[in-house]
Amino acid sequence: MFYYHSPTGTGYTKIYSTDWAFAALKADGSITAWSNSYSGGSNAPTGTGYTKIYSTRSAFAALKADGSITAWGGSNAPTGTGYTKIYSTALAFAALKVDGSITAWGNSDYGGSNAPTGTGYTKIYSNVYAFAALKADGSITAWGNSDYGGSNAPTGTGYTKIYLTALAFAALKVDGSITAWGNSDSGGSNAPTGTGYTKIYSNAYAFAALKADGSITVWGNSDYGGSNAPTGTGYTKIYSTERAFAALKADGSITVWGGSDYGGTTGFGITQSATTLSVDEDSTNTYTIVLDSQPILDVIVSMLSDSNGSNTSVVTVTPSLTFTNGNWNTPQTVTVTGVKDNDKNNEQTVIIHSVTSPTSFNAYGNVGMNNVRVDVIDTTAEDNYEDN
């Protein structure tokens, strides 16, 4: 159900959102929500005294001055008071109390259960699927999806801050050493060794760490800034888009790297071995397709003949190819087979390509490819000659 109309009246101070709904907070602490009722667009709490609203992709949670929480659009929030701040992954919440204890709720695959017991936690960090909580002694506890940082957090103490990509975490120690965990293609492994790092920056799938001398080390997905960082020293700060980095030097010069569609230098492309092809009836010919750079998730290239309305029966073609982050640089073969018919005419058709990806995280979903023109050579006359 949808409640399309925004609230009337005045006095609203801030608006919050899920993927499909809004919630507005008034100066008196009252709340009005609208749009998709399954994503927090209805059933907002009544009354006043709310100080801030937090959200996942599909639910809201509002904090009162007394530290009590009301949630809507999803599962029930914890009871009681004394909560100071709420954090969220894509589909779960975690609330921190004055005593440093934590309560989580929401989708368990996203950290909505198995929050750590005990007290003394000072801050919670989150990526899309997992939480990581830092204690006053610099120890870390993680929970949520184990593939994306919900397990294998570093042991020991002395960590000062946690950074994150969409699917991984990296923690910085007092001595400037770094430990990373989570999805390896998103920076969860291969963090730099040694000490002296002062700050970590991140985009969706890669980390960049800055040393005291202004040198930069990167890791994570190579196409999104996890490789090809600038050499040398003197860099003072790093900025990021979703899939690229830009570093500023003390002299005001800038170096960029990462995905070219996002402000960096690494592009996304697909190489095909042919744009024209000739095939005899009842015979085959082939061409190959390969990705130019490693994808985060699977990329599917589909082939369709004669989308322009010509005779769809003159060839058959391999329907689709799937490229993963493991086989992306291995050329795959498209087989085109000429269909035998009874006429004596050469024919022509076109094969078009469609590039798709399971999620919007993958930039390859926006890549276009050239058509392949196919000339089909008739063999009926040759067969008749041989029969005679």
Write structural notes for this entry.
The strands form 9 sheets. The protein has a 5-stranded mixed beta sheet with strand order 24-31-30-26-28, with no helix packed on it. The chain has a 4-stranded antiparallel beta sheet with strand order 1-4-3-2, with no helix packed on it. With 388 residues, it is mainly beta. The chain has 1 helix and 31 strands. The C terminus is likely disordered. A hairpin with a 3-residue loop joins strand 20 and strand 21. It folds into 2 domains: 261 residues, Methylamine Dehydrogenase, Chain H, CATH 2.130.10; 114 residues, Immunoglobulins (Immunoglobulin-like, Sandwich). Helix content is 2%, strand content 45%.
Concise synopsis of the structure shown:
With 388 residues, the chain is mainly β. The chain has one helix at 380-387, and strands at residues 2-3, 12-17, 21-26, 31-36, 50-55, 60-64, 69-72, 83-88, 92-97, 102-106, 121-126, 130-135, 140-144, 159-164, 168-173, 178-182, 197-202, 206-211, 216-220, 235-240, 244-249, 254-258, 270-272, 276-280, 284-291, 299-305, 315-317, 320-323, 332-338, 347-356, 372-377. The protein folds into two domains: 2-262, Methylamine Dehydrogenase, Chain H, CATH 2.130.10; 270-383, Immunoglobulin-like (Sandwich).
